[in-house]
Amino acid sequence: MGNTIPKTSTMSKEPKKREVIISVTRDDCTWTYFIASGNGGQNRQKTASGARCVHKASGAEGKCSESRSQWDNRKTAFKRMTETSKFKSWVKIETSRKLRDDSYERQQKERIEKAVDNAMKPVNIKTQVLEGKEWKDTDDEYWQTLKETE
Fold first, then answer.
1. How many Cβ atoms from other residues are within 10 Å of residue 51's Cβ?
2. Which of 9, 56, 66, 124 is the most exposed place for a label (fewest CB within 10 A)?
C-alpha cells in the first residue's frame, strides 16, 4: 500500500508547475575524497572512494564510505548532507528570505503600476496644439469639432 493519488474527473491532466525558490547542486558544496577502511578488498583500501560533502552556505556536512564506488558514496553523502538539521534550517531561512523579497518586489511593481494608471487618467493629461505660433489647450470640444470636420 503505497501513496496513490485517486483518479477523479475534476483533476487537471496537466501537472501543476512548481516554482523553484532555491536550488542546491553539487557545485554549491565542497567535496573531499578519502581512502575508506574496512571490508572491500584492494579497491576500497587503495582508492579514495569515500566522499565528504560540505554545503558552503550552511556548513552542513554529509559523509559516506560504505560503497566501493566513489559515485555511490558521493550521492549518499549529498543526500545525508540535505537531511541534516543545519541544512534544513538554512533552507527555511533562505526560503522565507526569498519569499519576503519577492513579496516586496511584487508590492513595488503594483505601486508603480497604480501610479502610472493614475497619471494616465484623462483628467491628469494636458494636451495642446500649435495654431500658428501659439500653443493652445485642447478640451473635449476641440477634439469633437476636429472629428466633425474630417
1. 26
2. 9
Do residues 61 and 52 touch, judged by C-beta distance below 8 A?
yes
Q: How far apart are CA 75 and CA 62, in angstroms?
A: 10
Global confidence as pTM: 0.59
Residues 78-94 have pLDDT tens digits of 999 999 999 999 999 99
The residues near 29 (Cβ < 8 Å, ≥ 6 apart) are 53, 54, 55, 56, 78, 81
State the residue for C-alpha cell 555511490: 72
Going by C-alpha positions, the residue among 40, 46, 52, 106 that lies closest to residue 77 is 52
- Over residues 108-129, the pLDDT tens digits come to 889 899 988 888 887 777 788 8
Where are the strands (E) in the chain, listed by range? 29-34, 50-55, 61-64, 128-131, 134-137
Please give the grid coordinates belonging to residue 37: 577502511
Using DSSP bridges, classify how beta strands 50-55 and 128-131 pair: parallel, antiparallel or unpaired. unpaired
Reference 76, options 59, 88, 64; nearest CA is 64
Mean pLDDT for the stretch of residues 2-22? 61
